[in-house]
Hints:
The chain has about 290 residues and is an alpha+beta fold.
Amino acid sequence: MELAAKVKDIDLIAGGHSHTLPAVYPTVVGTTLVVQAEAYGKYLGRLNLSFDEQGVIRKYSGGLSLIKDAAEDPGYTAVLAKYSAPIDELKNTIIGKTLLDLDGERADVRTKETNFGDLVADAMLSRAHTLKADAAIVNGGSIRTTIKAGDVSLGQILEAIPFNNDLVAVDITGDQLAAALENGVSQAEAVSGRFPQVAGIKFTWDPTAKPQSRIRSVEVMSGGGYQPLSKSATYRVVTNGYMFTGGDGYTSFQKGTNIEYLGFIDYDIVKDYIQQNSPVNPSVDGRITAIK
């Protein structure tokens, strides 16, 4: 809405990711139409536009339809069943076992260390061992659900890690690493997806302090043990492509050097890690400590 109000000559803005259900569809701001269809496939938005020869919108109509109120089309249902069968068989493939619930609850992975966050970060760091990576940082928002104790299927991995993020290794200074962690905890009270889950790193932070001044101490694994962060030292960090390109505010990664795109996808890394270490039994081990 703010963009539409401040920037001229935009015909249409189709919003996303803010989970907004507009009261009026489309919403008109000046000469710009703004639409969004809430979240999670609950609604279908339809917008019809008519332009004149100069490209100016002259007519429009549209609205939102609640998906659950729509009748199934028998033809499409039959086709879907045909193609779903082999996919469902693949998704039901058991790839390993966990002895504990892997905690991917939204309120947990976005505010504190969880055993699933530890496992995902460990999997990333393990995959990058040949690159001599020191640490891994992954945004809690990339983990979407809990996997219950017991057999783990490929479908559960895909549901929990759904974004197909690739793995990136980058050299950053200790100062830039500290800035990344500051960014990660800067919106924890809002349960922001930027909260960092880590491997090869221990840090303490003060949730009551002002954003960008919450990190109290950082240690990085070196020589078989954790050592205090040196702001002038260089560390090789593994993260996902979304964060590397500045997603969730992680702009400090863009200042790094010696960048390598590993060609591995996050859910595949987690799948392989569970397969290779099954049964997994991860517990929270004090990588992230909130102090007051």
